[in-house]
Structures are given as structure tokens and as C-alpha cells.
Amino acid sequence: MGSRNNTNVPDFILMGLTDSEEIQWVLFMLFLLIYLITILGNAGMILIIHMDLQLHTPMYFFLSHLSFLDLSYSTVITPKTLQNLVTSNKYISFISCFTQMYFFVLLGATECYLLSSMAYDRYVAICSPLHYLVVMSKKLCCTLVTVSYMIGFTGSLVNVLSMNSLQFCKSNVVHHFFCDTAPILALSCTDTRVTEITIFFLAGSTLMVSLITITVSYGSILSTVLKINSTSGKYKAFSTCASHLLGVTIFYGTMIFTYLKPSKSYCLGEDQVASVFYTMVVPMLNPLIYNLRNKEVKNALIRVMQKREGSRQLK
């Protein structure tokens, strides 16, 4: 009963990445540039897909939601990080901290399942091209996206509720630049074993289920592609999956490195670098990875610009 009488700290202090003011300003400019590119790239992708009818296909439907998730993902973390880099007030309230954690986990888990849905989409496109539009119907696409969000919502709610059951009566200094689970767990003055097992199970099951789906999908794709006789046919098939494979590798690589390990093995420097990568860099890279070499997106951008120019001339 004594431990339960301890009150939670009213707020936390986010220590950030460095104490050096010079480095903080450099990081501020770098992160601000990354954030602006993230907003421009992802918001631009959503608008192009919405405005161009030729991009109203299952693949681009998933890509528009991926852009929305990346935009939201970065916005949950980056603005507060930028504020802390240029101000001496590094406090974040208890409620704001857990709200940030909730949306961070929700968006991350949703993206895992969305990436697995995109892998299934590529599997159907290559292995059953004649039935692609029938199988990947609008109803199925909407169902896959809705289920991804629902799983993310449920998993994040369980994660935050289990964290909220802990008592934080020791230090309120968070050795990180945002409210992540591991550094917050380290501040608890109660037994965290049950909470750690719960979080590890949720994170592990999310990563493994989505990775198994992606692996099976691409295993079937590889088997189908190897049966193609022409070199050009193989190249075309592989090129349709290359961007997704690259995005999956970067995203899952950093997530597994950070989360699929005991909290006691949390390493301040390494985990912070990995966190910067998947919270800021990956959301910026995804629009470039998926669309920079995509002729359909480039042609759609040209059509949208020509349409706007035509409407101006009519006025």
C-alpha cells in the first residue's frame, strides 16, 4: 500500500539528444529541414493521388494512407523535439507525454500492418495479374486499411493503459527526445515485469505477424518471377516490388533493433540514433523511395499541373 500512496510526477523533462547549444542549433536546422521535406513530400503525394483519377488504384490507395501515417508519425514527434532544441523549457506534462506515446505506438503499429497489406497487393499484382482488380476490390482495400487502424488503436490503448498503471515517483528526467516506452519504464518505482512482458508481446506479435505476411508474399512473388523466361519480364516484375522492399527493410530494421530486446539492454546513444531514423528520416524518405523513380507519379504531377494551368487560362 505504501507504493500505491506515492503520487505520479506532474510532468517529465525530455533531456533530448545533446547538452551542447551549438549542436542543438545544428540539429534544429537539420530536423526542421527534414520535417519540411516530410510535409511537402507526403502531403504532395496525398494531393496528387486524390486529384489524378489514373492513380485511383489499390496500390496508390495504400500509398496515400502510408503518406498520411508518415506525416502524422513525424508530426507527433518532431514539433516538440524542435521546441526543446531551441528553448530552455524541456518540460512535458504527464498527460501530454502519454498522449504522444499513444499516437506514436498507434501510428507505428498501423504502418506495420499497412506495409503487410501493400505486400499482399504486390503478390496479387504479380502472381494473379488477370484477377488483380477483382481480388483487390475497393471493399477489400478499405477493409485492410480499417483493420490496420483498428489493430493499431487497440494495441496502443493496451500499451498506454499498462504503462499508466505504473507509479512514477522517482526522477522525472527522461533520457530521450520523446516519450518512448523504454525510457519511461526506467522511471517507474514499481515492478515493471508484467508491463514489459505485455509491451514485448504486443510489439513482437505486431512485427512478426506483419513480417511473416510480407515474407510469404515476397516468397511467392520470387517463385513466380523465377518462372518468367524473359529477362525484361523479370526486371519489370522486380522493379514493381523494389521500392516496397527497400521501405520495409529500413522501417523494420530500425524497429526490430530498438524494440525487440529487453529494456535493460536499452543503450542511450544507439537507441536515440535509431529513433531519429524511424521517427524523422524514414517518413521523409518514403515519398522519395516509392515515387522518385515512379513514372506514373511523375506523369500524374504533369497532368495535375497542366489541368491547373488550363483552368487559369479559362478564367
Topology:
Blueprint: E1 11-14, H1 21-51, H2 58-86, E2 91-93, H3 94-127, H4 132-135, H5 138-164, E3 173-174, H6 181-185, H7 193-226, H8 231-259, H9 268-291, H10 295-314
Helix pairs in contact: 1-2, 1-9, 1-10, 2-3, 2-9, 3-5, 3-7, 3-8, 5-7, 7-8, 8-9
List keywords for this structure.
three-stranded mixed β-sheet; disordered N terminus; globular; 75% helix; mainly alpha; 315 residues; 3 strands
Question: What does this 3D model show about the protein?
Answer:
The protein is mostly helical and 315 residues long. It has helices at 21-51, 58-86, 94-127, 132-135, 138-164, 181-185, 193-226, 231-259, 268-291, 295-314; strands at residues 11-14, 91-93, 173-174. It has a three-stranded mixed β-sheet with strand order 2-1-3. Helix 1 crosses helix 10 (295-314) and helix 3 (94-127) runs parallel beside helix 7 (193-226). The termini are far apart. The model is unreliable at 1-7 (pLDDT under 50).
